[in-house]
């Protein structure tokens, strides 16, 4: 099996979710640091234009979005499981709800200012043109209350003394809630909120202690060379049925439903119902298959 290569930057909350998965599963991995803002030439060479963070590279297979990274790592390294009691729907549902806190925090940070430099703010405005500082200032109080509600519910979930959100063992839901909660510590507006929730703070410490297992740095050019010298792994399974008007082998565009995140074009490859796969070729990286989670992504004929 090819090495696990995570393309990320250290401050990325969604990357922290994947780094903790490496910790839970005690996996060796390579770390490629990517720029926080565009342009990201080596990153988009591999992804085909997708710009969000993180991405997990395994040879010539490029897995975009932390949700898909979790699925892939669980499939390749099933023990210890991210779904320890087998209740996948509950874990995915709690994970999705927990991550609603991320944009609440980001909007507060941008509305209050003082954390991100001008280049970062301008880059994120290109992803979401409606990010206007004057408007954001007016909604900070509402977002603070929404965030407080999320923290109250997390504290309540831990009120019976359990170690983790769904019981005694850590799950993907803990990691999703951790990265969207722990990053609140970085801003003076949101950091004081956590002091009111002692069980939540103790849980944050427990999750952080999982660590990131065996990390070694890798240059982005070397990661591209690894992709170039590899071949995508053939799909081995029952392909998902496609709706009328779409067929495997079509030239398609895959678009995150979040605006401004970059479409990727290629040839639609067989995959199961949980992911989208497109084949594309570049001069530097060779033949690649770029994978996306089905959730939150659209695939249409190009």
Q: How would you describe the overall organization of this protein?
A:
The structure is a single chain. The chain is an alpha/beta fold and 302 residues long. It folds into two domains: 5-80 and 214-301, Glutaredoxin (3-Layer(aba) Sandwich); 88-208, Up-down Bundle (Glutathione S-transferase Yfyf (Class Pi), Chain A, domain 2), CATH 1.20.1050. Helices cover 40% and strands 18% of the residues. Strands 5-2-1-3-4-9-8-7-6-10 form a ten-stranded mixed sheet, sandwiched between helices. Helix 1 runs parallel beside helix 3 (66-76), helix 2 (41-47) packs parallel to helix 10 and helix 4 (88-98) runs parallel beside helix 8 (172-182). The chain is globular, with a radius of gyration of 20 Å. The model has no long low-confidence stretch (mean pLDDT 95).
Strand percentage lies at 15-25%
Number of domains: 2
Largest beta-sheet characterization: 10 strands, mixed
Number of helices: 10
Calculate the terminal CA-CA distance, rounded to whole Å. 33 Å
Strand order across the largest sheet:
5-2-1-3-4-9-8-7-6-10
CATH class of the largest domain: Alpha Beta
Question: Low-confidence runs (pLDDT<50, min 5 residues)?
Answer: none
CATH architecture of the largest domain: 3-Layer(aba) Sandwich
